[in-house]
Amino acid sequence: MLISNWTTANQRIQPIGLDIGHSTLKMVQVAVCEDRLRLLAARRLPVDSEVAWDTPEGRHALALAIRQLLSGGDFRGRKVTSALPINRFRITSVRLAEAEALQADKALRREATERFGLDPREDSINYLLAGSVRQGDELKNEYILLAADSQTVRNHIALLEEAGLIPAGIDAPPCALFRSFERTMRRQEDQEKTVIFTDVGHRYTTVVFGRAGEICFIKHIPIGTGHFDDEIASSLGIAVADAQLLRLKLQRDESVDAATRRHVIDALNTMAERIAGEISLCLRYYTVTFRGKRVERAVMAGGGAYEQVLLDVLRRQLSLEIEIAEPLRGFDLRKAGGNCQERSADLALAVGLSLKGWGTPAAVKPRGAVKEPRVPEGEPV
Length: 381
Fold this sequence. Notes:
Layout: E1 12-13, E2 16-20, E3 24-33, E4 36-46, H1 56-71, E5 79-83, E6 90-97, H2 104-116, E7 124-135, E8 138-148, H3 150-162, E9 166-171, H4 173-182, H5 188-191, E10 194-200, E11 205-211, E12 214-221, H6 225-236, H7 240-251, H8 258-289, E13 295-301, H9 308-318, E14 321-324, H10 348-354, E15 367-369
Parallel strand pairs: 2-5, 5-9, 10-13, 13-14
Antiparallel strand pairs: 1-3, 2-3, 3-4, 6-8, 7-8, 7-15, 10-11, 11-12
């Protein structure tokens, strides 16, 4: 549904959402007028996946790439919400007795200190309440703990500032991913359904279970489309770059000789089975932990959402309805171009980042020691 009759004076321009992927930068900015959304700009830029972004040289190259992306789009202002890389987060589930609920913050900080060696006075320790679970005869609360060390946060803010951006927020990728889709699940019938949101990136896959506006489970899987390319390259004895081109040819249903096609599909199946196996374990954990909460479907986002072999394997192993994400569904796309919605699944995380702070339910606002960077006053948006 396209949105009309916008009142410019009443619209609020959200910060730019910046998704720093291992192989592609994605940048999205939206505007809000009441509950209506307009896409102002959306851009992608491929980057060298072999560069070590955590080195000073790598961060400088990344900052230049971000500047290039920013200069080529109709972005408003320089405020940005970005996400730390998923592999820089420590994520775990923790159960506490109901009697400990009032002391949950203290207990979870202690857990992060003991399990991850973090300092609760300096590091970012956040958590979500996933729900109540029965453990034996006892009812407990299950929390999802998300933590990152302060040096990682400082380095990330320094990168954004070097790129000429003003940090307005630092988010966790699972929360941004869920936020991207939560707005489409507010009907009463949707509130009773559990949906698996899966973002298949270049090196990592993020799995988020959501129900009734709440995040119930998060899993970080160290497998992505880059591993598909590695497997194809190994099978055919070719360079990884050539393997990627072959994979994308098959994705677009372009002509590839029969023998090569068979090798590529076999390699894709190998990695798809591994991802599906990990998600199956997540599904088993969820159904055992939250009894009676049936999973209805899975929504695939990220660059791997268009891998037909992966979708077929997931349908077979999970026995669920599998659909490709449309994170721009319901947006007014006229300013950014009406074709933006086509193959937009990889923009889901960036959309969720730009939406941070708009109509956000408590479920996707991590509690605890959330350290947002200071934003300079008087900066135009």
